[in-house]
Amino acid sequence: MQAEAHRQARQRAARMRELMRACRLCPRECGVDRVAGERGFCGLDARARCFREVLHFGEERELVPSHQVYFAGCNLWCECCTVAEWNESPCDMEPIAPEKLIELIRRRRAEGARTLNLLGGEPAVSVAGILEVLAALDCEVSVVWNSNMYYSRAVDEVLRGLVDVFLADVKCCARKCCEMLVGVGDYVETVRRNIALAAEHADVIVRVIVMPGHVDCCAGPTMRWVAEKMKGVKVSLRGDYVPPAESVYAPRSYLEHGEMEAVRRTAAEYGLNVVT
Amino acid sequence: MSKAYKRKAGDFEIRILPDGRVVMLAPDEAMMEVARAIEGQENHSEQTDEGNHDKSASADGTGG
Lengths: 276, 64
Prior knowledge:
Shape of chain A: globular
Helix content of chain B: 25-40%
Strand order of the largest sheet of chain B: 1-2
Number of strands of chain A: 8
Largest interface: A-B, 35 and 24 residues
Strand order of the largest sheet of chain A: 1-2-3-4-5-6-7-8
Low-confidence stretches of chain A: none
Largest sheet of chain B: 2 strands, antiparallel
Low-confidence stretches of chain B: 49-64
Radius of gyration of chain A: 18 Å
Structural class of chain B: alpha+beta
Strand content of chain A: 15-25%
Mean pLDDT of chain B: 72
Mean pLDDT of chain A: 96
Number of helices of chain A: 9
Largest sheet of chain A: 8 strands, mixed
Oligomer: heterodimer
Shape of chain B: flat
Structural class of chain A: alpha/beta
């Protein structure tokens, strides 16, 4: 987090709050007045709701131990989401007061957290509340924005100088697959634009979430895009897909060993900067 | 066939796969303690019973 950006965080939060009066935080542009309590696709009003915080060791090596702070509410709808139950009715939860969250962040730092890892759901839909927390932080923290990257340009602008690492989850690529797996057709254009914007001001790790049966149509083209357009950006290959108990579109099986091997081979062929 | 159980907020889900892997969905701290305990058991069994034992537990922690 840069000092100047830190000083501006409260004003930036106010800007995002204004944007929520006819919500345009993400490309869905629901236009609802979240400040007045209306809710759009993400199901949130204007307040951020943290549903879990944990010191996690399973993230990429350079980030761990990582203090994960989960925010409820998401702007995508993925059948395979492992925390979907928290995103269905996010307003049912009592919001955690920023002071309480700050106390937890301090405690986790004392326990050895190297990074503050903001995730969800999708943190972008809670950006105003998150900025208020960052504004109130009085300690040096390395901030990780762990995101689906499906948000408006305005969100990227307010994160500049505040986020150190963007952990960009990319699940799919082919338009048809995006419509089925994450529920939006403009996913790839938006995500790629935001990854490119993020790389202008922070470290980026593109996390290729390898979906069973989607190596050639999704994981492969994503890696090719990184090789061609985002040369040098770090890539993390994640093969830990867990099928949902029931699904219409999401793969119903676990990833096969051969699929992951093929992805690793392709990454090597493209000369990607793979991190583990 | 009955419908699959739908997780509710606050539920934890642990799956044991046919190949012996243990998968935990978005584990919280208590679940990670369980994972560590299982891993500890595995290591112990590896030391005392070389050969016939299942693969070690793995935990999945990717978020939304």
